[in-house]
Write a structure and sequence with these properties.
With 223 residues, the protein is an alpha+beta fold. The protein is built from two helices and 13 strands. A hairpin with a 6-residue loop joins strand 10 and strand 11. The longest helix has 25 residues. The N and C termini lie far apart (75 Å). The C terminus is likely disordered.
Length: 223
């Protein structure tokens, strides 16, 4: 009986050690796969979202809301890769050939930081809806600044026309459709927010949302 118990303990130890060896040899930490590229505002050093990086083979990548791209392109790792850099309202310096871009050594686990000049007065900050807001931040193993960085409330995107009808000091109704991860039909949303729009002689156009918002929806659509 004791010999049987000893054999079972020995067998368990062998299986446990085998599983540890398997984990150590077969599991690779995902962040080490990627070459991290961060694009920052040269004035504020803050990451700039929605900056496009394009290779000479026309593969395109876009920064997330931290200004990050987790680059892992088969055939283009451990090489010098040239990326064209572009973003509306921003400008990247020209290289020796007059092209706005830069060549980077794409080593897994490594990274590069690019500074981009802001032409807009307003600073581009982050997305507030949709899927993958901090996708590349998560892939690179960095801590995102929000609780749901990949998908919040199943809302993958936003569609519809923001087409309010305004009267002086009146009410604006914004009609939007939220795309959902698990359905081909979007979820309609009506905002009944009051919009106080300044129409003074200074043409300031200042808007103040000063009423609570409510959403209404039924199976038949708008209510």
């Amino acid at each position: 009986m004791e010999a049987m118990s000893a054999r079972r303990v020995f067998l368990h130890l062998v299986l446990l050690s085998a599983s540890v060896v398997y984990d150590a040899t077969c599991q690779v930490s995902p962040p080490k796969r990627y070459f991290g590229i961060q694009v920052v505002d040269e004035q504020t050093a803050r990451g700039v979202p929605m900056v496009e990086l394009q290779t000479t083979s026309s593969a395109r990548y876009y920064t997330d809301s931290n200004g990050l791209i987790a680059f892992d392109e088969p055939g283009l790792m451990n090489k010098k890769v040239w990326f064209g850099v572009s973003a509306h309202g921003y400008e990247f310096p020209r290289d020796g050939f007059g092209m706005r871009g830069v060549a980077l050594e794409t080593k897994p686990g490594g990274g590069g930081k690019l500074k981009i000049k802001r032409l807009n007065i307003a600073e581009r900050l982050y997305r507030i809806t949709g899927q993958g807001i901090y996708r590349d931040t998560v892939l690179l193993g960095r801590k995102p600044p929000i609780a749901e960085p990949l998908l919040n409330a199943q809302v993958t995107g936003q569609d519809g026309i923001l087409n309010p009808t305004l009267a002086t000091g009146g009410v604006a109704r914004l009609q939007v459709v939220f795309e959902q991860a698990g359905s081909s039909k979007g979820l309609p949303y009506i905002s009944s927010s009051c919009l106080a729009l300044s129409r003074g002689g200074d043409c300031s156009g200042r808007a103040n949302f000063n009423c609570s918002s409510k959403s209404f929806w039924s199976a038949s659509g708008w209510v």
